[in-house]
Amino acid sequence: MITIAIPFYNAEKYLLDAIRSVFAQTYQEWELILIDDGSTDSSLEIAKSVRDPRVRVISDGQNKKLATRLNEVTKLAKYDYIARMDADDLMFPNRIEMQLACFKANPELDIVTTGVFSVMNNLNLNGIRGQDYYNPTFQEIVSRQKAVTHAAVIAKKTWYERNKYDQNLSIAQDLELWIRASHNNDFKIMSISNPLYIYREENNVTGDKLLRAYKNERNMVSRYCSDRLKYKLFLKSHFKSILVKILMKIDKVKILQKRRSNHRVCKEDSLKLKKAIEQINSFHVPF
Predict the structure, then answer these.
(1) HSE-up of 231 (CA within 13 Å, CB side)?
(2) Is the C or the N end of the chain the one with fewer CB within 10 Å?
(3) Paired strand residues for 195
(4) Domain spans of the chain, in order of start
């Protein structure tokens, strides 16, 4: 059994598609927590319209931000595994089944993440990214040699109870959590490059957002790293900030979005994505 959580805020355009991709899962022993973060559009009404005993809608009318809502999910979850996804994304029909199989084969793991199909808002394929790795070192995590796809994570509830998101951070809460847990030797994670998550990120890469993320990154490095590693990563982070500022001046920040996906897209990839979307769209959400 698994808890799937979708925090949402003003996601009326895409929320139903995200919910439909849950109903389309080959693994059906789940509960779905839809947790509203003070939406002012029709998102909450859409969530409440779903009629299935496995679905719970949580709403307190407040806007507490993602980190707080994810910590709340840990308290609300009925089951030992928690899968998260964003309200504007989709997941492949076999996502939950495949990740749970990784836990079964590797019971010592606390977290399993996957590769992603990066798509535009209309679901046109932008790129693919993902890595195969098992229990990376602290240096690999803090230097981002081994990336963790946050939205595609499934983790044990007990791990989340030991490792909570920092609710004081407005951005990069996931990276801070990975670095802190790894620093504390509590980061038993496996990543599979197979893309099982469909990630809308057309508007995610902005200059201002990147600069804030890099600033937070430097704060994390300062807090958790030794001096030798700290200086190296500081230089790298400052270089990235300078590059972003240059791209902002010439209105070319979108280049960085394309560079995030390091897998060359082929016809087979596009067909695989198209087939998954067709499977998802064929499922009925009970109202």
Answers:
(1) 2
(2) C
(3) 115
(4) 2-205+258-281, 207-252
pTM of the prediction? 0.91
2-205+258-281: in CATH 3.90.550.10:
yes
- pLDDT per residue as tens, the chain (287 positions): 999 999 999 999 999 999 999 999 999 999 999 999 999 999 999 999 999 999 999 999 999 999 999 999 999 999 999 999 999 999 999 999 999 999 999 999 999 999 999 999 999 998 899 999 999 999 999 988 999 999 999 999 999 999 999 999 888 899 999 999 999 999 999 999 999 999 998 777 677 878 888 888 888 888 888 877 887 888 888 888 888 888 888 877 777 666 666 566 788 889 999 999 999 999 989 99
Q: Of 102, 62, 81, 91, give the one whose Cα is nearest residue 192.
A: 102
